[in-house]
Amino acid sequence: MDYGQLPNRVIICIDMKAFFASVSSVIRGLDHEDKNSPTGVAYWRYEDIPFKLWSIHPMKDFWGISSATERRLHRLGIHTIKELALSSKEMLQKEFGILGEELHQHANGIDFSLISDVYIPSSRSFGKSQILFRDYTNRKEVELLLLELLDDVCFRLRMHQVVAQTIHLLIGYSKQTGGGFSRQKKMGRASNLSQDIFPYCLTILHTYGCGMPIRSIGISLSNTSIQEEEQMSLFEDIDQRERAYALAKAIDDIRLRYGKNSVLRTG
C-alpha cells in the first residue's frame, strides 16, 4: 500500500531538547505549522520562539499546561504563552511551586533535559518520621502528633503540585517493650489535603495499635500523580471543598513567608 493511501498521518519530531520536540509535535498536530510541507519536517530555532511558541492558543495546548493550570494562570492575569514567558518567575513559583519555574522556562524555550537522558517513570513518595522525646500513651496526644506530621507531608505534596493515594504508617513502641507495626492503606481518591488523609491514618492506627507506649511515628504518602482538576461527587459540597483548598493555600503562603512553624495545631 502506498503511504499516501493511509488514513492517518504519523508525526515524529526530533530535537536535542525533549521539550522542543514535544512542543513541535503538538504544533504539527494542531496545524500551527504547514501540514502540507513536502518534507513533513517542523524545524524550530530559538529565534522562532516569539513567532511559533508564543502563538500557541489556547494555553492548555502548550506542553505541561492542563485545563486546571490554564484557569489558575488566567486568575493571575496570564492569558497567553507570551504573557507567561514575560511574567514574574517569583510569582509563578509562589503559585505553582517548582512547576512554576518550569512553566516559565518552557515558555521561554528553555529546557535542561535531553532526549538522550533515560527516563524511568516512577511514583515518588513523600514522608516524614519522628523519634519522640518520651513515650506517649494518651490517644489524643498521639493523634495530634500524627496530624502535625501529616500536615508537613501534605504541604510538600502541594508544593510539588501532586496528590497521593496510598498511605504508609509506621509506629514504633517504647524501648522497654520494643516492636511496633507498619501498615499501608489506599484511599478512595488521591489528595493532598490533611482532612482527606487523616481519617485513613486514624483507621490504621486504631486497627493495628494495641495500646502500647509509642516512641516513634512515621508517615509516607505514595502512589502520587500530578494534581489535575478534581472530579467531584454529586453528594459533595463544592463550596466547602473549594474553601478547604483556599484555606490550605493560605496556610501554605504563611509558611512560605514566615517559616513552617508559623502555623501550628493545638490540642
Considering the protein shown, what is the CATH homologous superfamily of the largest domain?
A: DNA polymerase, Y-family, little finger domain
Mean pLDDT: 77
Number of E-state strands: 5
Q: What fold name goes in the CATH topology slot of the largest domain?
A: Dna Ligase, domain 1
Number of helices: 8
Q: Estimate what percentage of residues fall within beta strands.
A: 15-25%
The percent of residues in helical segments reads 25-40%
Q: Structural class, please?
A: alpha+beta
Question: What is the H/E order?
Answer: HHHHHEHEEHEEH
Q: End-to-end distance, in Å?
A: 74 Å
Number of domains: 2
CATH secondary-structure class of the largest domain: Alpha Beta
- Uncertain regions spanning at least 5 consecutive residues: 24-32, 114-121
Mass-distribution shape: elongated
The protein's oligomeric status is: single chain
Global Rg: 24 Å
Please provide a written account of the structure.
It is a single chain. Strand 2 and strand 3 form a beta hairpin. The chain is elongated. It has 8 helices and 5 strands; from the N terminus they run αααααβαββαββα. It starts with 17 loop residues before the first helix and ends in a 9-residue tail after the last helix. The protein folds into 2 domains: 99 residues, 5' to 3' exonuclease, C-terminal subdomain (DNA polymerase, domain 1, Orthogonal Bundle); 137 residues, DNA polymerase, Y-family, little finger domain (Dna Ligase, domain 1, 2-Layer Sandwich). Helix 6 packs across helix 7. About 6% of the residues have low confidence. By secondary structure, the chain is of the alpha+beta class. Strands 1, 2, 3, 4 and 5 form a 5-stranded antiparallel β-sheet that branches. Helices cover 38% and strands 17% of the residues.
